[in-house]
Design a protein that fits this description.
The protein is an alpha/beta fold. It has 5 helices and 6 strands; from the N terminus they run βαβαβαβαββα. Pfam families: His_Phos_1.
Length: about 170
């Protein structure tokens, strides 16, 4: 049996309000467009999560809402600004077959690099920019068996590719 992980960094957030706590920052206009595009891209690939693990930060919650899936998100403070090891622990408790995990840099990029047997051949993978989304498969029957270097890349994309924009941050 296999498990599928959709690992998404939140879309681009706004820095327009001086002094706003980091946890409360919303998406900016580009981030809102990007989140919709990521959701459409995943649905076009036939991927709909049956479990969603989401950081409690406003920008991650807004990213998920705009992706347009009906699966209720499990929103948790434990995914806000965490390390790769903490993400591994959280994911090891997952129960879905296809899990979408939404988080933050740098932990999410570090986790992506460590969980794969081979990284994708993509120039932006190491940077894991806002909205970056990895689809990985694991030959396991339970997330409890998740191990470093155990994943195989199915696909990786950054929003600018989906929106037809030429440069990346």
């Amino acid at each position: 049996m296999t498990r599928t992980l959709i690992l998404t960094r939140h879309a681009k957030s706004s820095w327009d309000t001086a002094g706003m706590p980091d946890h409360d920052r919303p998406l900016n206009a580009r981030g809102r467009r990007s989140a919709v595009a990521i959701g459409q891209w995943l649905r076009a690939k036939g991927l709909v999560p049956d479990q969603v693990l989401c950081s409690s930060a406003r920008r991650t919650r807004e990213t998920y809402e705009r992706m347009g899936f009906d699966t209720p998100a499990e929103v948790t403070d434990t995914l806000y600004l965490v390390t790769a090891n903490q993400i591994l622990r959280e994911l090891s408790e997952a129960t879905g077959d296809t899990v979408l995990l939404l988080g933050h840099s740098p932990g999410i990029g570090q986790f992506a690099a460590e969980i794969l047997g081979e990284p994708p051949d993509h120039p932006k993978f190491d940077a894991y920019p806002t909205g970056a989304t990895l689809i990985a498969r694991f030959d396991i029957d339970s997330w409890e068996k998740l191990a470093w270097r155990g994943g195989a890349v199915v696909d990786f994309v950054v929003p600018r590719e989906l929106l037809g924009e030429q440069t990346e941050e």
